[in-house]
């Protein structure tokens, strides 16, 4: 039986005169790999900001593992077991891969744990290095990593904090084909023992690795379902294709959904 790990109920976020999130109800069950999609400005990042305590909801509730967490600060939410990556990198470039992961592992435990930090590779850090394929690069300064390796380092830093829920913001943006494949495999593997929510624009990646998808539009949940179901939904096509007809420029394929007829799985 599945249990909701994360529940949002009636969440609204208003910035001045602008309503970025307009009454969202959303449930993510323990063990899910959920993709969150939607055109630019749909409210995806704001939603993640609300869950992670970066933005306080104007109204509504957020419950994690049965506890209300809306209104808690970011550090407390990390300690409760929610971790996120950002669109922009947060690694310390001059520190090695190992040092970055080690710092992240101690961050959740608080300032005293950081001060008492021992030299060497703890079992947690060693396990994360192996899992993310970064073990051979443990001694390399983070500043020397490729774009893909840096993204894996950020995922490794999250894993080192031992979260139950990971929120990943566009993990394959800017990656090569090979790096995307490796990231897809890594996400699938991480989802075997974590709950994972991924914001992603890359539709090829979505078709390949997504199970359940929630589509946001103008601060609301437009629809939810499997990749095939949401691709076949005329409202989803309208939102994406309507938008791309109005604003897309040549080469801007980020938000283009392939129509259902082209969906091999459908
Ligand atoms: N601090 C803020 N103040 C005012 N408006 C904001 C603020 N943060 C976000 N917004 C607005 O809220 C809307 C939703 O933004 P959000 O970044 O959540 O969308 P998104 O779906 O993540 O888009 P993208 O795919 O472009 O990242 C946008 O119109 C954005 O301009």
Summarize it.
With 266 residues, this protein is an alpha/beta fold. It has helices at 44-51, 74-80, 97-107, 111-115, 123-131, 147-160, 177-190, 203-209, 227-232, 234-247; strands at residues 4-15, 18-29, 33-37, 59-64, 67-68, 82-84, 165-169, 195-199, 212-217, 220-226. Residues 6-243 form the ABC transporter domain.
What does this structure look like?
- With 266 residues, the protein is an alpha/beta fold.
- The protein folds into 2 domains: 1-81 and 163-230, Rossmann fold (3-Layer(aba) Sandwich), CATH 3.40.50.300; 91-162, no CATH class.
- It has helices at 44-51, 74-80, 97-107, 111-115, 123-131, 147-160, 177-190, 203-209, 227-232, 234-247; strands at 4-15, 18-29, 33-37, 59-64, 67-68, 82-84, 165-169, 195-199, 212-217, 220-226.
- The strands form 2 sheets. The chain has a 6-stranded mixed sheet with strand order 6-7-8-3-9-10, with helices on both faces. A 4-stranded antiparallel sheet has the order 2-1-4-5, covered by helices on one side.
- A hairpin with a 2-residue loop joins β1 and β2.
- The protein is globular.
- The model is unreliable at 244-255 and 258-266 (pLDDT under 50).
- Bound molecules: adenosine-5'-triphosphate.
- Adenosine-5'-triphosphate binds at residues 15, 18, 20, 38, 40-46.
CATH architecture term of the largest domain: 3-Layer(aba) Sandwich
| Total number of beta strands | 10
Whole-number radius of gyration?
Answer: 19 Å
Distinct small-molecule ligands in the complex:
adenosine-5'-triphosphate
State the separation between the terminal residues, measured CA to CA. Answer: 27 Å
CATH superfamily of the largest domain: P-loop containing nucleotide triphosphate hydrolases
Please write the string of helix (H) and strand (E) elements.
Answer: EEEHEEHEHHHHEHEHEEHH
Structural class: alpha/beta
CATH fold-level topology of the largest domain: Rossmann fold
Please report the first level of CATH classification, the CATH class of the largest domain.
Alpha Beta
In what order do the strands lie side by side in the largest sheet?
A: 6-7-8-3-9-10
- Number of distinct helices: 10
The outline comes out as globular
Mean pLDDT: 85
Fraction of residues in helix = 25-40%
Strand content: 15-25%
Biggest sheet statistics? 6 strands, mixed
Uncertain regions spanning at least 5 consecutive residues: 244-255, 258-266
How many domains? The number is: 2
Keywords: ATP-binding, Nucleotide-binding, Transport
GO molecular function: ATP binding; ATP hydrolysis activity
Pfam family, one: ABC_tran
Domain ABC transporter: 6-243
